Amino acid sequence: MHFSEAAVNGWFALVPWIIAFPVAGLLVNLALGRRLGERFTGFVASAAVALAFVVAVLQGLALLQHPEGARVVVADWIAIGGLSVPWAIKVDTLSVTMMLMVTGVSALIHVYATGYMHDDVRFQGDPGRYTRFFIFFNLFVAAMMILISGDSFLTLFVGWEGVGLCSYLLIGFWYEKGKDGIGNAVAGKKAFVANRIGDFGFLIAMFLTFWAFDSLTFDTVFEHAEAAGPQAGLVLTLITLFLLLGAAGKSAQLPLFVWLPDAMAGPTPVSALIHAATMVTAGVYMITRTHVLFHLAPASSSVVAIVGAATAFFAATIAVGQYDIKKVLAYSTISQLGFMVAAVGMGAYVAGMFHLVTHAFFKALLFLGSGSVILGIEHGHHHATQGHGDAHGGHFDPQDMRNMGGMASRMKVTFVVYLIGALALAGIPPLAGFFSKDEILLAAQGQNLLVYLLLTAAAFLTAFYMGRQVFLVFFGRPRSQAAAHAKENPPVVVLPLVALAGLSLLGGALNLPGVHTLGTWLGHTLGEEHAPEFSLLVAGVSTVLALAAIALAWRIYARRPLGENQPDPIEAPLGRLFRALNNKWWVDEFYDWLILRRYVRLANVLAHQVDTIFWHNWFHDSVLAAGFRRGTRWLAESFDLPVIDGASAALARLVERLGSGLRRMQSGYVRNYAVYVLAGVVLMLSFFLIRSLS
Amino acid sequence: MNIPTNYVVALSAVLFSLGVIGVLIRRNAIIAFMSVELMLNAANLAFIAYARALQQLSGHIFVFFIIAVAAAEVAVGLALIVTIFKTKHSIDVDLVSSLKG
To answer: Disulfide-capable partner of A283 in A93, A247, A567, A666 (CB 3.0 to 4.6 Å)?
Structure first.
């Protein structure tokens, strides 16, 4: 492809539109969405994101000509003393890769959501929320674009907080649903608080950066950091560790991962877009973006690698013991994010970004596929309960895999695409996941045996739990009335799945071994990176393990399909271990015991002692209120009564006394009046007389 | 014979003073009334005296007016006195003091 120089230069200037389009979409929907109905809302939101995708494609084409990228200043933002932060957009291969991925996947998910939310808002009983959903969705895309495109820590942070807010809003989208009627709201709060801990780390890292390097713009910071030499080692280690804390919050790594499984309370497109494909990868992106700092702090880098690998393994074990279709995917997401974090920790940034992109494809596909299954089950449930009264009596969970089974014949398209996603995730060649995961394993094998072993074990578990899920959901016989009556969804829901399935099939072509398209592309930003050669041993081991895991899952779950109300077949042999997996290693309970309960007790004590007794009873009641009362009483008694009241009372008394004096003149005797008249005449005459005389 | 104006004015002043004293000290309404007439005519006398001394007609015209007003006043005043007498059975002016403050 060849484009003229002038045209290409103009395309870089278009990049602010990548933020402006989603914002415009949300403004239009905010103003008109409710009046013009669902079709209009869905169209505007999807079109806004699709236009943003077009802008991203233009940036990509422009970068083919000018791989060094551009910096587009949108506006002056902050200028205080030595701190000067313009709002500038950085167009380079790294940010454009993210832009393409985010806007592309978002556009597909937006289209999917127009169909999914149509039914969802009806099953949940509030069609009016349709517009709100798309407003939040567009807001999320805009915030994500700010995050990706920022050329300084501060602009990145604005987007960072923006996506956190959207995540919170969308997790709690059905805020009155969930456990005890507040379960979803609590999940949103949990996500927000866990993210705040990460944000706190990010903020500290920013403060340290500004303190040490006098700037917050990436390029300047990198220059100063490289120039500072070894004496900056300590502060760089601190900065990168705090950045890791930020990334752990956003990308759901140990120990802050607990919010992501609960975030599944949001509608399924939210889980697919925010909590699988885009927002949670922000941490990985941020570490890649600041790779210079991590490169200068090898100690932090190895911590990053260990945290990532540990998370990958830990979350994969939990995913094995889950029944909720979306929870399995949530823990899988955490596990895969661990792969990416481990990759960037080992300096294999290209491998990390590669896995980030392919993971976005197949995990979005899996989430949307699970959403399609859930919709199908909900349809079936609706159908079954309408036919036979409330057949199930109490609460029916459309996401519990024990209620599914045999969906393959009822939802054929969904089954096929889900299978593709699952195989891609499991790392079966030649699907996308195989290549990206293989690159990470390759890097680990060459650098860190512990990380390699953890990741390989995680890869084995990944294949196993995906096999378990596919066999439980799609094979065997339906284990509930709802599953028996499930039916395939309309094309608007299914077509984006097909598109994502295509991407999951072919996504590996982005960075084939030996060709390294993505590696060369990102090399313009990340610097030339020596990619290890493709190793048949590593690829062979991971493939064999994945196939073995799938075979194991088939042996356990598919040879003798699970019946209705039967326990999971691995429950008996694993015993207490399965209980631990099913209860997520009691991490939530542990945090509850370690932090939450103490925190709540502290809060209670503070509320009672400080707030009630000190502030309320003493400061407010005794000092403020009593002081005010005393002050006003003094004013009332010493000023109002004697001075103001006294003045008016005195005036009144004067008038009264004057009046009663004059009253006495009014005797009623005509002769008296005549005397007054005479006196008056005499006075007047004497006045004139005296005047004429003198 | 030519009477000097001063004499006439002095007589007028005496008459007026007598009228004033009459109004002030007599309680009989009729007498008070007559005193008022006396004052009016004292004023008439003064007008005539000066009109003659200054050879002007306006004094005469004033006198005619005063005579007319006095006649009207007598008509109203006597009617009032009759009415008071009807209610109080007396024409003592001191009895009519219900407008006192």
So the answer is: A247
- Could you tell me if A423 and A548 lie in one domain? yes
Decide if A671 and B101 are in contact by the 8 Å CB cutoff.
no
Number of domains in chain A: 2
Considering the domain architecture, whether residues A435 and A377 belong to the same structural domain is answered as yes
CB A418 within 8 A of CB A369: yes
- ipTM higher than 0.95? no
> For residues B35 and B19, is the Cβ–Cβ distance under 8 A?
yes
The answer on A551 and A431 residing in a single domain is yes
Q: Give the Å distances, CA to CA, from A78 to A12, A83, A88, A155.
A: 23, 7, 11, 11
- Give domain status of residue A128, yes or no: no
Alpha carbon distance A260, A275 (integer Å): 7
Give the count of beta carbons closer than 10 Å to the beta carbon of residue A214.
12
Q: Enumerate the residues of chain A whose CB falls inside 8 A of the CB of residue B24.
A: 671, 674-675, 678
Where do the domains of chain B lie?
A: 5-90
B101 and A667 in contact by Cβ < 8 A? yes
Contacts of A215 (CB under 8 A, 6+ apart): A209, A221, A224
**Nearest partner of A552 among A566, A571, A540, A570, judged by Cα:** A570
Structure tokens at A565: 């109300």
User: Which chain A residues touch B101 with a CB distance below 8 Å?
Assistant: 662-668
Q: Find the residue in B nearest to A660 (Cα).
A: B101
Q: Of A574, A608, A626, which marks where a domain is finished?
A: A574
Q: Give the residues across from A71 on adjacent strands.
A: A90
Residue A663 lies in domain: 590-680
Residue A209 tokens, joined: 């950066």
pLDDT, tens digit (0-9, with 9 covering 90-100), for A372-428: 998 888 888 888 877 554 444 457 788 888 888 888 888 889 999 999 999 999 988
Whether domain B5-90 has CATH 1.10.150.530: no
Judgement on whether residues A404 and A454 belong to the same structural domain of the protein: yes
A94: enclosing H helix or E strand? helix A93-123
Contact between B99 and A662 using a beta-carbon 8 Å cutoff: no
A329 touches A272 (CB < 8 A):
no
A90 secondary structure, DSSP code? E
What is the separation of C-alpha A196 from the centre of its chain, rounded to a whole number of angstroms? 11
User: Does pLDDT of A562 surpass 80?
Assistant: no
Q: For residue A214, what is the enclosing H or E element?
A: none
